[in-house]
Design goal:
Elements (H helix, E strand, L loop, with lengths): L1 E2 L6 E6 L2 E6 L5 E4 L6 H11 L1 E4 H5 L12 E5 L12 H4 L10 E6 L2 H14 L7 H5 L7 H4 L5 H8 L4 E4 L3 H12 L23 H10 L1 H14 L14 H10 L13 E10 L2 E2 L4 E2 L4 E9 L7 E8 L2 E7 L12 E9 L7 E12 L2 E6 L4 E6 L34
Helix pairs in contact: 7-10
Length: 417
């Protein structure tokens, strides 16, 4: 909202329960960090130009004191999305769209190199045991077209023009020099940070496997090529601050996304913790597809006069796979004032291979209201068993399409000739 004062209008940018008092003439810069695009190195330069504040620190109310808006840069992955979930950039910072005072910076990387870098990052963290070619066949949540929410070649120009600056992580020094000139900041040598270790899989990829990966990233390569052309000066991107991200906002409004009820005051109910467990332990590494997953939600009800019902949403390849709604019996009187723990179990051999994201929410279904929502998505990597245990895949080696592949009991009967 805009509040007129005797001197100048002031913008209050709403982020969760935190109001940021920013001058209307200038809003903070935003660094939209797409994972595995040399963002850590970029931040080492940005921190010499700006006071950096992570999006998480804003959520915790730790905004640096006495920082002028044009000296502040807010950084974050924002769930790898501009808009689509509750941690997305535009959802978290609704003052950004159609506002030339808000300047968003990002970097892109050769899409195949980005995938390979992410693969080795996941392996180092123990989050995947797949080979590189197996990993490449799964949905990649941070590919450029996903992170920038570009669905066709026609979307590339208007989307990239919504950014104040788009650089290349493959030429980070050259990109940061261009950005320095654009911001009237001193040029700074870019340090190299967090270089991942790789084995020999990249060098030994069969030509047809590499060609198959490149084909999967055809749209992403068009995006990358467009930024290359801009950085070479062949066809500069023209920033459209007055209409930046307007199409995303208009689309979101048209879909009628449910807003948090009570988000600007005392909530009817509040989520305390949300965890995914397997065999009684919190999931921190890939789980076999024949392992049952238990979704555990702890929440507090403050107003027992309101209906509060938990629900879980499961995402696969950034699409909703299914929603688990709370089901009660006739003796259930609802959730009284106090703290409650509920759980729901996804049976073994139901989920396909790949990464799943889970969202918990507290709702009133009549009429539909949402009292609270998890602040970030919880993810789980589902992998094939290492031994010869039976799964729904049978003898098929290629990944099944779709989010689920239930293991069924087969019966067969043969009529004798």
């Amino acid at each position: 909202m805009v509040v007129e004062t005797a001197t100048q209008p002031v913008v209050y940018c709403f982020t969760s329960n935190l109001f940021l008092r920013l001058g209307c003439a200038r809003l903070a810069y935003f660094f939209y960090h797409i994972p595995k695009t040399a963002g850590t190195s970029a931040k080492r330069v940005l921190e010499q130009w700006f006071t950096l504040a992570t999006d998480a620190s804003l959520e915790a109310g730790k905004l640096p004191a006495d920082v002028a808006p044009d000296d502040l840069c807010i950084t974050g992955h924002f769930g790898g999305k501009l808009v689509a979930n509750n941690v997305s950039l535009i959802v978290r910072h609704p003052a950004v769209p159609k506002n030339p005072a808000a300047k968003v910076i990002t970097f892109v990387r050769d899409p195949v190199e980005q995938l390979i870098s992410y693969y080795y990052h996941q392996r180092a963290d123990g989050k995947t045991s797949a080979s590189l070619i197996e990993f490449a066949k799964r949905p990649f949540e941070f590919r450029l077209s996903e992170a920038l929410q570009i669905s066709s070649i026609a979307d590339i120009e208007p989307r990239l023009s919504s950014f104040f600056f788009v650089g290349l992580s493959d030429d980070l020094q050259g990109s940061m020099d261009v950005l320095a000139d654009k911001l009237a900041k001193p040029r700074i040598d870019v340090p190299r940070s967090r270089v991942g270790k790789r084995d020999g899989q990249v060098q030994t990829l069969a030509p047809h496997d590499l060609a198959a990966i490149e084909e999967m990233f055809e749209l992403d390569r068009h995006i990358y090529q467009r930024v290359q052309d801009a950085m070479r000066g062949e066809k500069p991107l023209i920033w459209n601050g007055e209409r930046q991200f307007a199409d995303l906002v208009d689309t979101r409004s048209a879909t009628g996304d449910t807003k948090l009820a009570g988000a600007d005051g005392d909530r009817t109910a509040k989520i305390e913790t949300f965890e995914i467990c397997a065999a009684g332990r919190r999931v921190e590494a890939p789980v076999d597809c024949d392992t049952a997953l238990t979704l555990e939600l702890k929440f507090t009800v403050h107003d027992e006069t309101k209906r509060v019902q938990p629900a879980f949403k499961v995402f696969w390849n950034k699409q909703t796979a299914f929603t688990v709604a709370y089901t009660h019996d006739e003796r259930d009187l609802g959730f009284a004032r106090g703290t409650h723990l509920v759980s729901a179990t996804i049976p073994p051999n139901l989920l396909n291979l790949g990464r799943y994201e889970f969202e918990a929410s507290l709702n009133d279904p009549y009429p539909v209201q949402r009292w609270d929502l998890t602040s970030e998505l919880v993810s789980v990597e589902v992998a094939a068993p290492a031994d010869a245990r039976a799964t729904a895949a049978g003898d098929w080696q290629s990944p099944f399409p779709g989010p689920v592949r239930p293991l069924l009991t087969w019966k067969k009967h043969t009529n004798p000739e």
